[in-house]
Design a protein that fits this description.
It is a single chain. The chain is an alpha+beta fold. Helix content is 31%, strand content 28%. The strands form 4 sheets. Strands 1, 6, 7, 8 and 10 form a 5-stranded antiparallel beta sheet that branches. Strands 2, 3, 4, 5 and 9 form a 5-stranded antiparallel beta sheet that branches. A hairpin with a 2-residue loop joins strand 11 and strand 12. Helix 3 packs antiparallel against helix 4. The protein is globular and about 65 Å long.
Amino acid sequence: MGSDMEKNQKQTSFTFEIDNLWEKEDVISSPIFLSGGCEWFVQVYPKGYGTVVEDHLALFLCVANPESLKLGWKRRANHSVLLLNQFGKELYRSNENCRLFCAQFTKWGESRGLPLKDKWILEKNKLIIKVDIKVVEVVDEAQVTGMEMLDLFGFQIFYSQVVSVSRLFEEHPDIKVNFKPKIQLVKNAYMTTLLGLIETLDKPPHSFTETELVSAKRELIELTEAGFKLNWLDTKLAEVFSEWKKANAKNYTLSLRTNADHEVILEEDWLIEGIIRSWNEFKLFSHLVDEKID
C-alpha cells in the first residue's frame, strides 16, 4: 500500500499542442490524462476567461468527470503551467500552487497567462502547453456536513464560499496587499464580514433601512482599517446611498459621516440649515416688529 501511495505521488508531466491558436473562439479542452490515480484535463480560453480578464489567455487544470465521483471526494495537488512556442521558447511560467479540488471547485488555473497583445510571439500560431502535477492527497468518498473548510489566499473559508472568494480575488487581485491581521481566526472573521457586506450591497437600494446603511459604512471603515483595499466597494456604497435617497424622497443633503468619537452617523444637513434659516427669519421678523412699534 505504501508503494502505491508513493507511486501515485510522483510528479507527472503532460504536454499538448494547439495549432492556429488565435483563430480559435471557444474554450479548448485537452485530452484526459492520468496523474496520482486521478483523471485530469486542461482547459484553455484563447480570448480570455469571462468578462473579468479579457486581455490574457487563460488556462485551468480540471478534474475530469467530477459528476461521476462519490460524495465528499477531493484531491489536493501541486501544479504549475509552462507555455512554449513551437521552437521551445518559454513564453510564460506560472508559480507552483497547491490546490484542493472538490465538488464545489473542480478547476484551478491561471486567468492571467499569456497577454493577448503578444500574439506575434507565436510562430505559425502554435502553442505548446506543459502541465506539471503532483497529487498529494486523494479522498474518494467522505461524509459531507456543510462545514468543511478550505485554505484559500490565506483565509480559511467554507466550501460554499470558494466561488465568491475566488471571484473576489480575480476581480481585485491587490485587495489584501496591505492586510494587517495575522491570527487565522481574526483573518477569517474579516473575510466573512467582507463577503457579507458585498452581498448586502447587492440588494436593491430602496430596500435598505437607515440602520443598515450606517452599519454598512461602519463595516467598510473597519475592513479598510484592517488593510483591505476597498475603494471600489466604497464607490458602490456611495451609489447605493445616492439611489436610496432618491427612492425615499430624501431631497435634502444626507450624509454618512464619522463623528468625533469615530462613530458612523447618518447626518441630516437640512436640520442645521433649517435652524440657521429660522434664526435669520426670526431676526428679520424682530426687526420688522421693532419698526412697527416705533
